[in-house]
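Async update (no meeting this week)

Hi team, since we skipped the sync, here's where things stand on the single-chain job. The sequence we agreed to prioritize is pasted below, unchanged from the tracker. I ran it this morning and attached the output directly underneath so nobody has to dig for it. Comments welcome in thread, and please keep replies under the output.
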Amino acid sequence: MVTTTSKEYVLGISALYHDSAAALVVDGVAVAAAHEERFTRIKHDPSFPVHAIGFCLEQAKLSAQHVTHVVFYDKPLLKWERLIETYVAFAPQGVKSFSMAMQVWIREKLFFRRLITKELKKLGFDIKKVQILFTEHHLAHAASAFYPSPFEEAAVLTIDGVGEWATASLMKGSGSRLEKISELKFPHSLGLLYSAFTYYLGFKVNSGEYKLMGLAPYGDPKSPETSRFIDLIRKEMITIYEDGSIFLNLEYFNFPVGLTMTEDAKWHKLLGLPRKIGGDYTQTECNLALAIQNITEEIVVKMARNAQKVTGMKNLCLAGGVALNCVANSKISDEKIFSDIWIQPASGDAGGALGAALAVWHMHLAHPRTVKSDTIANVAYLGPEYGEYETRHMMKKYGAQGITFSNTSEMTAQVAELIAQGKVVGWFQGRMEWGPRALGNRSILADARSNETQKRLNLKIKFREGFRPFAPIVLEEKAKEYFDIDHSSPYMLFVAPVSEKRRRPFPANYHQMTLREKLYYQRSDLPAITHLDYSARLQTVNSKGNPVLAELLGAFEKVTGYPVLVNTSFNVRGEPIVCTPEDAYLCFMRTDMDVLVIGNSVFVKDNQPKLSAELQNITYAAD
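Output:
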């Protein structure tokens, strides 16, 4: 441990809503960041991030007493003010919701400084020396996007459900300064609008929005029904202004004071279909998903145009939960509104922990900013790393049988051969990813050329809905041979069309097919990653950002001629992405994966002893 210090160390925290996390900033650089869920194994864990904080300190080789500033990612008293004013405005509606919310707030959140102090003392922080601060929620989002970006100056757009009052904000970043220009306020929220449709179509709010995005391409863009839904939403539910601001007709929404997102009876009457509760998706439901996705894209593009017009900037930074909508991000890119776009890979609330710490470093402590090139290793690979000692410990505990290669080249050559044979590989390398996407360090990899890969991954490995698409990873220098894209996409936050020459045309009756029939129609020579509209949520890989993964892609190209693989997160439905070698081995053994790779060690399923009945017989929760 470090024994003396004159430096300032800033710890950022997000907690007590969903996706708790911690991030540590030293000399203006994020040295560690992690989601609490990865350690507790509770998906979207909202609890105080004790384990994430412990990791951050361990990674930086610091004791708790060295931390000089702790900052929380929003201002609880402003949020309290919003809750009270909202309930008063809607009274007597929402009495039950108000009562439940007040119990939680009075018990846990209203006196949050006291709660933080109590938890920090347990962890050994010197409460007399550490300064506890709070930053506004959207400032934390904006800081998480702008300060790590490769831009000296940029427009900064943040869009989410709601922070304290803000639901979207526009700021201008320059040097180490962030200047707020405008904001949209609760209850008028694009994020909450999208979540309302997420809820109505049967997915869970705050975790199922990406499923809605994945369902949308099953809708028929030429269907009169899709057009009717778009017209009804625009006419009855929402007013969209030219600058991207919106006004919701609250007669249709229950979230301001209720326990649900929507007024279901009114939605049913307006749209002509009930709220989704189980079962396969109909074409009508897919068309509704496409309608709200199209409206979301329209609004986001309008916000981006306004951001460029107001700030005059040539670069854009994005954060907030809506910035994880990679289809909308790509619409901004396609419109060429900005020369370049940079998106925080942890754009959701977890990322607020990093943004809060960076805001304190640059704005509160007034440290200058050094602009660095966009390097994925310094932005997204901020979690824990485990070496040979932890792998050997896991092997001894479970009797795992593996072969350890003497060098990476031999390992990647062997693994490429196995994937080419149709094997599905759990891939565990280096530091864990920061953010919700697996970017090649905690991933499941498979052959994108196989028409069976998507079905097998969804139903027998991930245990999730069969319609869910998978993302490709591709060598950056070869990306244009397979996808229509003119920029890198290292964080899997853009979509790109599969190249025209690789597509197979739709049959004449395509839009009359069932969802399942569409799913298994082979749309290109990379069927496992080609979505219904020929799109793919793309990650580009280079040897600078992830040398081991790039080497594997190169080895796979030597075997097959394709430097492209399926990349999905190393977890199953209802569980967080794996963190430790033990997490990885148990996930591997409980699923239909064929091979596990940890560092240079390769474990083949057929060579492993059976897990005990207690470890093997688990039920995966819905997410």
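Quick observations from my side:
The longest strand covers residues 166-174.
The chain is about 35% helix and 15% strand.
Reply here if anything looks off.
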